[in-house]
Amino acid sequence: MARFQRTDIELLFPDGQAATRAQLEHDPRWLEVHAGQRPLCRCTPAGVEMLVRHRQGRHFLANLPGRSHHHSLGCPSYAPDPLIDPRSETIVGEIQN
Prior knowledge:
Elements: E1 10-12, E2 18-20, H1 21-26, H2 29-33, E3 40-41, E4 48-55, E5 58-63, H3 87-96
Antiparallel strand pairs: 1-2, 1-3, 3-4, 4-5
């Protein structure tokens, strides 16, 4: 199932700087500078805490365990909660096969 993913969603970093996902894709140094920090994804009014991780020579945004379903549906970081919707695991597995 395709879903609309917004690139204008802002991330607020602990040092007070903010960037959209489009800016992060355009300039990956943003994530390098903020490695190990926990930005707040502003896809919902309350925000969802994330983590800037580094693996195999690249930096990326990662969800904290059990937080993927707290993002808004249009957010690239959203994933259904498998405890609430057990079909989500099956659907992902079927698409990949």
